[in-house]
Design brief:
alpha/beta, Rossmann fold, Helicase, Ruva Protein, domain 3, 2 domains, 7-stranded mixed beta sheet, two-stranded antiparallel sheet, 38% helix, elongated
Amino acid sequence: MKLGQYWLEDEASLKAIMDIASITGGTVLEIGPGRGALTKHLLEKADKVIAVEIDSELVEFLKSSYPSDKLEVIHQDIRKFDLGTLSEYKVVANIPYYLTSALVRQLLITGNPAQDIVLLVQKELAQRMAARPGDMSMLSLMVQLYSNIELGPIVEAEKFNPQPKVDSQVVHISTKPAKDAERILSLAKPAFSQKRKKLTKTLPYSNISKVLEQLGVKENIRPQHLSIDQWRQIEDILRQK
């Protein structure tokens, strides 16, 4: 194994990912294709598969194993890949655990977001992204501001080679317009950096207690307990004052 990648070769799990992705033509960006177990299925459904792989040996393996005009293999770190070069694309990938948070942010906070994103990620991280008020974090706030997220099936660790220590889970992320997302994330950042403290202690606004009272929110509330709508309302009121 290189670069934190675990190979999924279980056909039932691969089929489940493909069913959720619902690909009928078009362009698909695959991140970290590895040995091409998922690539093979994508080529059967998509008009074009752009596979971005950082490992030079795997790049050559993919090119020789899947000689198709529909496949473009790019030898590059996905974090340096220009998403602006794509048009009307989906993302489908089994991504390295260590990349997940940064990569999801890259895919969502871009001037050219994908129409649809289906990822296989560490189970714990999948559930953090889809968390509800009470368990919110900067990650879940960011994901849910920029998209609608649904949790798919869990893929047990024993279905990977080599076997990781934890299970994985499929996430289906449907992007949406989010004009106010940057402002809300900027507002929330200092609160989540000290999430054990009350909002009145972490948000640098003298009138924050009155704002919370206006919204019917308890003054001792902490950031992880606020909903997306409540963050949006707080930001809107503070911006107008």
